[in-house]
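Appendix B, example 12.
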Amino acid sequence: MFYKVFPGLKQLIYYQSSNLKGDLSAAIIVSILFIPQSMAYAVIAGVPIVMGLYAATIPLIIYALFGSSNYLSVGPISIVSLLAFSGVSSIAKPNTNTFLELIIVLAFIIGFLQLTMGLMKTGKIFDYISPLVVQGFTSAVAIIIALNQIKSLMGVSLPKYENLLIYSSNIYHKLPDINFFTLSIGIGSFLFLLLLKRIPKITFLGPLFLVVASTLLVRFFDLHLKGVATIGSIPKGLPQFSVNLPTLEIFQLLFPIAFMIAIISFLESYAVVKTLASKKKEKINSNQELVGLGLANISSSFIGAIPVGGALSRTAVNYNSGAKSNLSLLLTAILVLISLQFLTPLFYYLPMAALASIIIIAVSHLINLREMVDLIKARSKATILFFITFFSTLMIDIFYGLVIGILLSMLMFIQKIRII
């Protein structure tokens, strides 16, 4: 019974020392990718950088103890960060204390919902939501995330994303205000990361190289005095625990947003976990995954951080780097904690344009153009489901797009049952 509550603890107690080399090397590699990604995803969420870094620590430790996967890298992810920003910014003005407080409380509500669904053993319900809904939604969100980084690449300010046409028009009208130092850094960073993607063995080092090189470039040439925005000061030290419980009014206000994020973050995380489990012939419990993610989000709220989920790219890097057990997750979190304690002053001159390029490259794998072409050729109901979700998300609203896709998927499932 004890190990059912703490499935990850059993592995740690009966740990095989022969796995240490693989777990340690994977942790080092993943943390190199994790730190710049956490900073970048904090930018997407519209919060201070340190809130993204905090989310890369304790939540990952909690998941390692309660989750059922040895490889899932839980922490800030692009889709959850954008959904959190979009939802909370419709209630409170960004860059205000109220906005930050609501983001933190949102993490708690997401975690509470996921934990409740896991304890009530509702994980199997999500099998009835077509994977094409998730794919159509994530493809559209990836494009929105990339478009939202245009302002950092250009060195201009832009209003919040509403839909594709309005935002494209806003970008066009800001072209005369481009800061060419910022644009040069952004384009250079983007091309640098694309170049390293052609060298698979060192691709994971791209963000680290870019962070170091761009920071030195800004500092050496005083580009921060020429309009190049940098991340500035990051508070030094470890996260502090404080309980952030929502009032009934705030719970009701944030519930629809939290519910959508809870579903989509679980679906994305679970898809990654199932893929790796099938390769290793391991069993994954969907309800235990909900419990692990739920507790991770609750812990993220308690340390004043942003909502978290399982990251596809970091999980793949962890797996391919030789991780053998959940110790790799714990070691990754420890390395990020060490960085928070000692390395944050080094990031002062890191340009926002470099972070923007890291974000764009990170989300680009979510847009599968080849699969879109195959779906168009197939001309099936699945094609309709994918593209309705995709265009609804892009052209109407992020949350409405997901709702439309889920409802349409449910209707198709009910129709299929009636035919049978």
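The chain has a mean pLDDT of 87. The CA atoms of residues 237 and 341 lie 4 Å apart.
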